[in-house]
Write a structure and sequence with these properties.
- With 217 residues, the protein is of the alpha/beta class.
- It is built from seven helices and seven strands, in the order H-E-H-E-H-E-H-H-E-E-H-E-H-E.
- A three-stranded parallel β-sheet has the order 3-6-7, with helices on one face. A two-stranded parallel ribbon has the order 1-2. A two-stranded antiparallel ribbon has the order 4-5.
- Helix 2 (36-39) links the parallel strand 1 and strand 2.
- It is globular, with a radius of gyration of 18 Å.
- 24% of the residues are buried.
Length: 217
């Protein structure tokens, strides 16, 4: 597992790693060196989940010692791994921390626009063609705010373009969801992106293995 170096993503991936380890799978979990002490208490299967520490090198334009998005300005946070995995003949699964309905609604494929498209308020007032929940409509202020979020740049790349690139390059998409809740949206994503969708079901975190609270939350 190589999550985006943001605490919300690191913890979500670790919850999934615990679920996989419960079934006997070994997991190699890449994370920045300084975050290990914040996550170790949530590794409930240290015999199967191995933390592989990454030393983040100094990068021009980033704060000294930066390791996670918590240390870095929003304008400097890009990351992709699927293309690197493909060069090593490794299958990659993009584990989305956003529910399937989100990507189904924002899908540039479904809306027939390029990955670099910058959504406007008008674009997002209604769902794309064939959307499984056609009655969903956004108010103007909601669509305007979401259009802004989609266009926030991470290292010069808009957030939505970053997500679309990950969807295009990965082999499989995973969601923390279940068919009872989002079966229609999962089928929609599979059809529009031509990607298999795997679901984890409910991933409920267990209490930390120590009584100390995690720092930085």
């Amino acid at each position: 597992m190589y999550p985006w170096f943001a605490y919300g993503h690191l913890t979500s991936f670790l919850h999934l790693a615990n679920k996989l380890a419960q079934r006997g799978h070994k997991v190699s979990f890449f994370l920045p060196t300084k975050t290990q002490h914040k996550l170790s208490s949530h590794n409930h299967h240290p015999n199967l989940i191995t933390f592989i520490l990454i030393t983040v090198p100094p990068v021009d334009g980033l704060p000294h010692g930066a390791e996670t998005t918590n240390d870095v300005p929003v304008s400097s946070q890009p990351q992709w791994l699927p293309s690197v995995a493909r060069k090593q003949s490794i299958k990659s699964l993009y584990y989305s921390t956003m529910y399937a309905i989100g990507m189904a609604y924002f899908s540039t494929k479904a809306r027939n626009v390029p990955p670099t498209h910058r959504f406007t308020e008008t674009d997002l007032m209604g769902p794309p063609p064939g959307f499984p929940c056609p009655d969903i409509r956004l108010r103007a202020h909601e669509a305007r705010q979401l259009a802004h979020v989609c266009g926030v740049e991470f290292g010069g790349v808009a957030l939505l373009e970053k997500l679309v690139t990950s969807y295009m390059e990965c082999d499989v998409v995973g969601y923390k969801s279940c068919r009872e809740m989002e079966g229609g949206c999962c089928d929609y994503v599979e059809k529009k992106w031509n990607k298999q969708v795997l679901l984890t079901g409910p991933v409920i975190p267990q209490p930390p293995s120590t009584s100390s609270e995690l720092d930085g939350y």
